[in-house]
Amino acid sequence: MTRKLSLMITWQFDMKKEDAIELARIADETGIDSFWVPEGWARDAFSLLISIAEKTERLKLATGIVNAYSRTPGALAQHFATLDEWSDGRAIIGLGASSANVIEQFHGVPFQPSLARLRETVEIINMLMRGEKLVYSGKWFNMDRGFTLRFKPVREHIPIFLATLNPKSVKMTAEVADGWMPAMIPKSALKAEIDQFRQWAADAGRDPAVLEVKAGGVTVSDAPGARDAGRGFLAFYIARMGDFYYRQLSRFGYADEVAHIRKVFNEQGSKAGAAAIPPHLLEDLGFAGNADECLAQLREYEAMGVDVHNVTIDTRDPVKFGRAVETLLR
């Protein structure tokens, strides 16, 4: 089976749209499987994905992720059905809950109960893609007029990946989604968590082999500080993105480390917080090295049960990029 590599861009920050589109074009030509565009509280994900759809041919196009609160399930179905149409069936739905800070303080929407909202969103999107009349009774959503999408989607089902953290939400993912995106799970715990995810799928009467896990993370780079590149992102999520990620790492044995990181971040600022991340935690959450070293790490992830690999390739030179991808696909 061909190894699946995925790219996630930093579209939310200072990346120009032209650079993002060019990276997607290079990824399309060199064998990357999927291209994931995030959405936080800056640029939206769908506008860029539509532009990329027009300039690529085979690359799968995914949201990585959009939240299930700021748009209704009907609006999400419209967005994804349109993206799937414009890309000739290459869309992937990436959904998550985000955090209470973002949902309540940026979008102004009550955050709880997140588990029910995510499940109902998945169910409604699937109904609309199948062309069913929207008659639905749930905790969050109740519709009885039988609306349908006013055009026929390219596919009756678009794969849905959920980014979930706690055991209840991961179990729900195994029951209703096509893929799972583990968040903040150290390498030392990843295999056990993936095994549990697949067992929950089997318990729900599903074939665990057809579900995909998008996880791990490697950065192909010869730069001396490549392994430190994720410090700022990690410190911010531990200290400022609510308690989800903080509790997640605490659950996996890093309670003292994350408590110290949060304290330093809040008292001394983001740079100090990033510097407070100990090397052993940083290395347990990712990997950086040359292409051959990263290939060895991908093989380790596959032994843990990973199906789709998160990769970063630290070059925009098409030739060097292509060589790195060629190595990673060996």
Notes on the protein architecture:
The chain is globular, with a radius of gyration of 20 Å. It has helices spanning 17-30, 45-55, 73-86, 100-105, 114-129, 167-176, 187-203, 231-240, 244-268, 270-275, 279-284, 291-304, 318-328; strands at 4-8, 34-37, 60-63, 66-67, 91-96, 134-137, 142-147, 160-163, 179-180, 212-220, 287-289, 308-313. Helices cover 48% and strands 17% of the residues. It is of the alpha/beta class and 330 residues long. Strand 2, helix 2 (45-55) and strand 3 form a beta-alpha-beta unit. It has 13 helices and twelve strands. The chain has an eight-stranded parallel β-barrel with strand order 1-2-3-5-8-9-10-12, surrounded by seven helices.
Topology:
Elements: E1 4-8, H1 17-30, E2 34-37, H2 45-55, E3 60-63, E4 66-67, H3 73-86, E5 91-96, H4 100-105, H5 114-129, E6 134-137, E7 142-147, E8 160-163, H6 167-176, E9 179-180, H7 187-203, E10 212-220, H8 231-240, H9 244-268, H10 270-275, H11 279-284, E11 287-289, H12 291-304, E12 308-313, H13 318-328
Parallel strand pairs: 1-2, 1-12, 2-3, 3-5, 4-5, 5-8, 8-9, 9-10, 10-11, 10-12
Antiparallel strand pairs: 6-7
Helix pairs in contact: 1-2, 1-13, 2-3, 3-5, 5-6, 6-7, 8-9, 12-13
